[in-house]
UniProtKB/TrEMBL annotation:
Protein name: Cysteine desulfuration protein SufE
Source species: Actinoplanes xinjiangensis
Residues of the Fe-S metabolism associated domain: 12-133
InterPro entries on file: Fe-S_metab-assoc_dom
Coiled-coil ranges (or none): none
PANTHER family hit by this protein: SUFE-LIKE PROTEIN 2, CHLOROPLASTIC (PTHR43597:SF5), SULFUR ACCEPTOR PROTEIN CSDE (PTHR43597)
Family as reported in the entry's similarity comment: Belongs to the SufE family.
Length: 144
């Protein structure tokens, strides 16, 4: 797991429940805006497991690093928080690091005690789709 993401996981896992909710709101507010060229979600994948409209796109750069792009409406703070956590925690991460992120990331963070299982399932789907997009881009590169 990338060091920054591991740090975020540890912070959440050790925080009291009321602080966890505040931390989620901070990540939701800090989520970077979507670049203008993706405003219509062109080339982005929708995550239907989320209760709200959520779109993502992962791009593996020539140096092996991954750029993750997310879009979620501001009125969905929990889902935006998942995106904000991944955006910050995976910034500058390599494809190998992204693929190594544990699938139970949100459970490890202790979020199952703070938010509904349905929300945790949505966050897990976001991570799963992100990892799948990265894997699809890495596999052809490794075959060359």
């Amino acid at each position: 797991m990338p060091p920054k993401l591991a740090e975020i996981v540890d912070e959440f896992a050790t925080a009291p429940r009321d602080v966890v909710l505040e931390m989620l709101l901070e990540f939701a507010d800090a989520m970077p805006p979507l670049p203008e060229d993706l405003a219509g979600h062109e080339g982005m994948e929708q995550v239907p497991e989320c209760q709200t409209q959520f779109f993502l796109k992962a791009v593996v750069q020539p140096d092996g690093s991954v750029v993750s792009l997310f879009d979620c409406p501001p009125e969905s703070p929990t889902t935006r928080a998942f995106a904000g956590i991944l955006a910050e925690g995976l910034a500058g991460a390599s494809a190998t690091e992204v693929l190594a992120v544990p699938d139970d990331l949100y459970s490890r963070m202790g979020l199952a005690n703070a938010i509904s299982p349905l929300r945790v399932r949505g966050g897990t789907a976001i991570l799963g789709r992100l990892k799948r997009q990265v894997a699809e881009q890495v596999t052809p590169l490794q075959a060359e």
